[in-house]
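The protein record passed on for reference:
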Amino acid sequence: MRYMIWNNKGGVGKTFLTYLLASEYARTNPEKKVVVADMCPQANVSEMLLGGDGLGENNLERLMTNGTTVAGYIKARYERSASARLGNEIAYFVKASEYNHEMPANMLLLPGDVDLDICATIINYLAQAPQVGAWKRSRSFLNDLLFSVEQQYGEANTTFFIDCNPSFANYTEMAIIAANRLIIPCTADSSSIRGVNNVLRVAYGVNVNQQTNGAATGDDPFYTFSRNASDNHLVLPKIHLIIQNKSRSLDASATIAFRAHIDRMNRLINAIQGTSPDLFTENQNRIINVKDGNTLAAIANHTGLPLSAIQPRQYDIYGKKTQANQSQIDALLVQIEECVAVL
């Protein structure tokens, strides 16, 4: 299964959520190869998986220098074989535990790269080639990479988590085409609701307010991707989970405004599921609340520790003592395990 974690809005905690889901899924499913594909130019999830601040940065820098990143692959395809796989796709995946001993042995990483934004120009150039199918090929590079892992280990034995940039770039389109399940992280605010609306419009051609699809919108640029995907007979991922990330620990203590946003998000998803059920998987546990990681996110980001390995003690983060409490760890771990259970 290939899970894409994306919302067309920043600040919803998607990278930390990807890190938590992938590392805990790998821990609880040791018989599977669990792959994180980093499709964000900031490459934060790569740094965390490769060892956190300092160590992870240095490891990622070496991989970028060697071209062992998603951007390195796109450049190689541009230079050597834009219309066909290189044949060495599996070499672009690294074993996370070889760089960060805290990571499960069954976890692989397709490292991110700041040059992914530069590669956007390459992708557009290849899409405009005069050959038939050029747009589809230009958006299929990530699919080619993930397919190489499935060939190596078996499709049934591999699970992918794709971390995405909040913008809707052409490399985001690559991720959509490569995925078959979509996890949308959001927060209880109006901008997150707008972000979910934009996901539906730009990815699926669904206008929540007008209840129309891309076929009825003429030349509206919001629907360019959905039209191209349809014209190329591409199957888009189904929405599997809406994770209300950074939720309050106790709903009963939430403010009226906070709870109102949660209710509004629930109504939005229920309405879309009612009018466009084909966009969703059959998962019944559709919306899950996950508490704010706060301190735990800072510790994981700095140390490269998976959540289950964080201990209830003080950690030194840039000279400041940061306390991890067992109650925090347990509460977040229970909610992440709830998410993992429905993947």
User: Anything to note?
Assistant: The chain has one domain: 2-186+236-256+275-341.
